[in-house]
Amino acid sequence: MLKGLRFAHRWLGLLSGLVVFILGITGCILAFETEIRGFTEPFRNVQAEAKPYLPPSVLKELAGKQLASGLALGIEYPGEGKAAVGIYYDDSRYELVFLNPYSGEVLKHKNMNRDFFRIILDGHYYLWLPHAIGQPLAASATLIFLLLLISGMVLWWPRNKGAVKQRFRIKWNTGWRRKNYDLHAVLGFYMSWVAIFIVITGLVFGFEWAARTVYWISSGGKTMVEHQHPLSDTTKAVPGYNMADRLWEQYRRQTGKKESLAVYFAHLPSDPHEIIINHSPGTYYNSDFFHFDQYTGQPLKAAGSWDGRFAEANTADKIARMNYDIHTGAIWGLGGKLLAFFASLLAASMPVTGFLLWRGRQRKERRTPVQGVPVPA
Length: 377
Description:
This protein is α+β, with helices and mostly antiparallel strands. It has a domain at 2-33 and 119-219 and 331-363. Helices cover 49% and strands 11% of the residues. It is built from ten helices and eight strands. The protein has an eight-stranded antiparallel beta sheet with strand order 4-3-2-1-5-6-7-8, with helices on one face. A hairpin with a 6-residue loop joins strand 1 (74-77) and strand 2. Helix 1 packs antiparallel against helix 4, helix 1 crosses helix 5 and helix 6 (176-206) packs antiparallel against helix 9 (315-328). It is elongated and about 85 Å long.
């Protein structure tokens, strides 16, 4: 049984190695995206002032003048001392306009298609390939890596008491082949306890069946409902009435100075307005989502997990919202990001050490005498 497991572990590793390496390295870089942006993008910060912010309708118009589409889909107020952000995205373009929320001054127009972290993210999700090709490849490699984690733990497990000690530490005073084996086996063991969470949350992103399975388990057998925005009642249209500003003003009073408040505008006649309050900027899970009829301002309920207050969501919906922050480790703060960083780095090293193990065995087999024939010097 172990012989067959070793064979499967070896060849599954060789099959997925390059993709796992890319996912691991890009995951390392993305772990501290928020912190790196904070140091390298000064246009995200403004001097706090005593006067009130400009309303979203004003910032929407100012941002639209900078955008290629001429249309800001939403305005985000990330909190005191932070620039407001005008947002536009579609299937091919993603743009941000950073504005001083007090004066409306344009601080930066950023084409996110050329942004370093967006390029890294494209590699992490799509391997820099067309999305229809890269996404299933990345997801399939993630699934294979889960099988490698499980099979690796079985192969690592000590067979007797004498083998216990050597399974937990690297022997540095040995030859390079033994050190390479220890780097693969010992570091793989320690990495697995964190990587298992990264892999499972990655599968939720990669496969719908994985997302539905996690939801079914965490909900006690309920079916996951796809997210769907509610519709505004077009029969109650009131020309010239700015409901988005009214809703923003209402929720601005409920939002703390360090919390983020975003307004996403209704653009089609049946669209709703959406208000998002993020209580923990830098993460995504602790956010409240509210939808409103664009004409009457009446609250509307969206289908799926992304509706209402996080604190009032059921367990399955909370886990669905937490998936990204578990994946990056951000849900546990800086310590969690460090764990995710090192787990991703070690995951990227596994295909390298594994390939060297395989290569070493191949060379050894070629040099082994066969039927008494001596090996040439």
